[in-house]
Amino acid sequence: MDPLRIEAGELTTEEILDALGEGRRIVVRADLFGAEREMTLRHDGETFYCDTPTRLHKHDDPDEMRACIEKMGYGRTAGDDADTADADD
């Protein structure tokens, strides 16, 4: 299966976790220190991995991986999806 390629913030954190749970490898393109970089997120059924150009992060459970995805800005949070159209009313 080809990796799922996304831009940082394109999917929600939960969508990323769902894809990882389905066995997908995700390549996230993000700005890192002023340069475009690709990070690879994966799950081997036991451990979550976040492979960056400088470090390999390992996480033992979905909550740790969720925190990493949100901290690094790879996924949108549910609040980012809120419809602000009513703000003008």
Could you give a short description of this structure?
The chain has 89 residues and is of the alpha+beta class. The protein is built from two helices and five strands, in the order βαββββα. The radius of gyration is 14 Å and the shape is globular.
Mean pLDDT across every amino acid position: 87
Low-confidence spans: 82-89
Using only CA atoms, what is the Rg? 14 Å
Counting DSSP E segments of at least 2 residues, the number of strands comes to 5
**Terminal CA distance:** 47 Å
Compressed to H and E, one letter per element, the order equals: EHEEEEH
Please give the share of residues in helix. 10-25%
Sheet of most strands? 5 strands, mixed
Strand content: 25-35%
Order of strands across the main sheet: 1-2-3-4-5
Structural class by secondary-structure content: alpha+beta
The number of helical segments is 2
Task: Name the shape in a single word.
Answer: globular
